[in-house]
Design goal:
dolichyl-diphosphooligosaccharide--protein glycotransferase, two-stranded antiparallel sheet, about 375 residues, Oligo_trans_STT3, metal ion binding, glycosyltransferase
Length: about 375
């Protein structure tokens, strides 16, 4: 039975790849503007090495101002394709950088189907996992971002997103520190790959907080959440384009609050959830150590001290947020929460410049 399920999953992967490589029937090319920029960056990386890549000032991008590439791009896609190119050439498979870039998206779309299967299987079973993987393979919006030649951040980020959620669920079910560490590393890869990592660092704290509120706290929840917040945040801060935003923007605060319900926030929800989770864990530990009378005294002291600390922290956070023109949120998040945020901004600064310009031209005519 397991052999049959494995065969079905491998067949689905092959169909998923075949669907996405039909565009190279006549020629193998990279599509659209951003993928060509990513291709050019990958060429520079493979030719000059990682050190020059981090310090590269490109005077041909955003001309005539230029652009510091290492500190303004999410490097996950570039490093992934560059590493694949290096491995293949080390094995005497002489593929060009362009060929590797063209086939990166279809390859990772198959991995995304596999990750979806694992995630759904962990929750509901094998049959549901195969169904979910098949549905992912047919999603039109994902197909458009994973065909051969679509060399953009989403090519690898969707796999990283799904795989991070899978490892989180796996850690919840097993309570294994091994899977918890892998989860933090998968989150780090997601941070390297795409700005959509804030979706993870807000959704997982929401789940952890809901478990606490509904009385479903357990040591496994702490094991799943704490390494993600602590190790994941430290690793995220190593990515130049993210840096200290991992602990200073509103998008990361929720996770830290739950951590002291599980400790505090890295993106906006991370800090608060992190704090909450740690407080809950401490309470359960002390309750098992003390008599009921001593526990009440301890609770009174802890609550009093906690209120003082919380007031001080809230005051500092309010001051920081109030001093920010965007109240600590990134343009991506504000555009999602408030569709009117982009009104009045230059089309050149729009997250999807090409679509925005086409829309304005359509309105003009």
């Amino acid at each position: 039975m397991e052999q049959l399920q494995l065969t079905e999953d491998m067949t689905l992967d092959r169909k998923m790849r075949r669907m996405r490589i039909k565009v190279i029937k006549y020629e193998s090319v990279i599509h659209e503007f951003d993928p060509y920029f990513n291709y050019r960056v990958t060429q520079f990386l493979t030719k000059n090495g990682i050190y020059d890549f981090w310090n590269w000032f490109d005077d041909r991008t955003w001309y005539p101002l230029g652009r510091v590439i290492g500190g303004t791009v999410y490097p996950g896609l570039t490093l992934t394709a560059g590493t694949l190119w290096w491995i293949l050439n080390s094995l005497n498979i002489p593929l060009s950088v362009e060929t590797v870039c063209v086939f990166t998206a279809p390859t990772f779309s198959a991995l995304a189907a596999w990750a979806t299967y694992l995630l759904t299987k962990e929750v509901k079973g094998t049959g549901a996992g195969l169904t979910a993987a098949a549905l992912l393979a047919m999603v039109p919006s994902y197909i458009s971002r994973s065909v051969a030649g679509s060399y953009d951040n989403e090519a690898v980020a969707i796999f990283a997103l799904i795989f991070t959620f899978y490892l989180y669920i796996k850690t919840l079910n097993t309570g294994s520190l091994f899977y918890a560490t892998l989860n933090a590393l998968a989150y780090f890869y997601m941070v390297c790959s795409w700005g959509g990592y804030t979706f993870i660092i807000n959704l997982i704290p929401m789940h952890a907080l809901l478990c606490i509120v509904t009385g479903r706290y357990s040591p496994r929840l702490y094991i799943a959440y704490a390494p993600l917040v602590i190790l994941g945040t430290l690793l995220a801060a190593l990515v130049p384009v993210v840096g200290f935003n991992a602990v200073m923007t509103s998008e990361h605060f929720a996770s830290f609050l739950v951590m002291f319900s599980i400790c505090a926030e890295i993106s906006d929800g991370l800090v608060q959830v992190f704090l909450i989770l740690n407080v809950v864990g401490l309470v359960y530990y002390i309750k098992g150590m003390l008599t009921p009378k001593m526990f009440k005294v301890a609770v009174t002291l802890v609550v009093s001290a906690g209120l003082i600390v919380c007031c001080a922290v809230v005051a500092v956070l309010v001051a920081l947020v109030a001093s920010s023109p965007t109240k600590g949120w990134s343009g991506r998040s504000l555009s999602l929460l408030d569709p009117a945020f982009d009104e009045g901004r230059s089309a050149a600064l729009s997250p999807i410049t090409g679509e925005a310009m086409q829309s304005r031209e359509g309105e003009k005519w």
